[in-house]
Amino acid sequence: MRIGKSTRQTKETKIELSLNLDGNAHNDIRTGIGFFDHMLNSFATHAGFDLQVHVQGDLDVDGHHTVEDTGIVLGDTFAKAIGTKEGIARYGSFYVPMDEALAFCVLDISGRPFLVFDAPLQAGQIGAYDACLTEEFMRAFAFHAGITLHLRILYGKNTHHMTEGLFKALGHALRLACEETGKGVLSTKGSL
């Protein structure tokens, strides 16, 4: 099975995370930010991953360190779980409609981290979650997972719907990219 586990402790956060890419969406997510828990649960459920995340963060400051550091640890753990990238589809893309909003994700498990984030999320709060932290999470995840990640909101008005669409689209696109093909490394170079 493709499983990764990581822990990370700084002066700002303490994170324990485990990820099973071949799971059944059995999730236990506790970050201290309700909406962020909802987003991580949506991501893992739509990816079909088992995700356990326990975070103690400096929420008395704000949610920035908790959200960004969770992205770092999730990316590191994903990289461990996916391993050599041998025998996977490598690419994935998916559209997710959320009522009036339409989100799109395309990615490449390439070992070459990059983020394009074209999502005009309005400043402000969704519960205790700062909407602007979505880009911070996605950047941290992409760079630590070693993936090229493009995210876009084609249209929408409700920040909750747009944000949730992005997390769900990421989950679906990763599920497709992680599918096992049994055909070695999908690269003309022979390695990633």
From TrEMBL:
> What GO biological process terms are annotated to this protein in UniProt?
L-histidine biosynthetic process
Alphabetically ordered keywords of this record:
Amino-acid biosynthesis, Cytoplasm, Histidine biosynthesis, Lyase
Q: What is its EC number?
A: 4.2.1.19
Per the record, the domain of life is Bacteria
Q: Which GO terms describe its molecular function?
A: imidazoleglycerol-phosphate dehydratase activity
Pfam families associated with the record: IGPD
Q: Which InterPro entries match?
A: IGPD_sf (IPR038494), ImidazoleglycerolP_deHydtase (IPR000807), ImidazoleglycerP_deHydtase_CS (IPR020565), Ribosomal_Su5_D2-typ_SF (IPR020568)
The record's listing under HAMAP family reads:
HisB
Instruction: Write down what this protein is called.
Output: Imidazoleglycerol-phosphate dehydratase
According to its UniProt entry, this protein's organism is: Ethanoligenens harbinense (strain DSM 18485 / JCM 12961 / CGMCC 1.5033 / YUAN-3)
